[in-house]
Amino acid sequence: ASSSQYQYGRPSDEELIELTCVGRSTKPIRDLLDYVKMWSLDKEKALTVIRRPANKERSRYGGVWSRVSSRPSRPMETVVLECEQKARVLTDINEYLHPSSPR
Question: Exposure pattern of 56-65 as b/e (b: 16+ CB <10 Å)?
Fold first, then answer.
């Protein structure tokens, strides 16, 4: 069963899905959720996700960033910037994505 959540009288961008499993084992549902998670992560590797700060009401109940959209990632060679500016941007990106940086 599926139903849309409403926030301030309009549908939110999140959807509630209820999964039911016949029998005592929840393994089929866990396997499905694991598969969907891996599929989603794999799909996002080729995308650049654009986010914005969430409003105060929403930030109380979850993350403080809302996903606005996503676009296919593109090579840096296609980005037109002065060489020095591009180098600074790449340095910032690499620092931000470095495993030792806080999540």
Answer: eebeeeeeee
User: What pTM was computed for the model?
Assistant: 0.43
CA angle 32, 37, 40 (to 5 degrees): 125
Read off the amino acid at residue 12: S
**Where does the chain have alpha helices with state H?**
27-44, 56-59, 83-97
Q: List the structure tokens of 8.
A: 């301030």
Query: What would the pLDDT profile of 47-69 be if each residue is shown by its tens digit?
Result: 888 888 877 766 566 667 888 88
Please name the residues in contact with 81: beta carbons below 8 A apart, sequence gap of 6 or more: 89
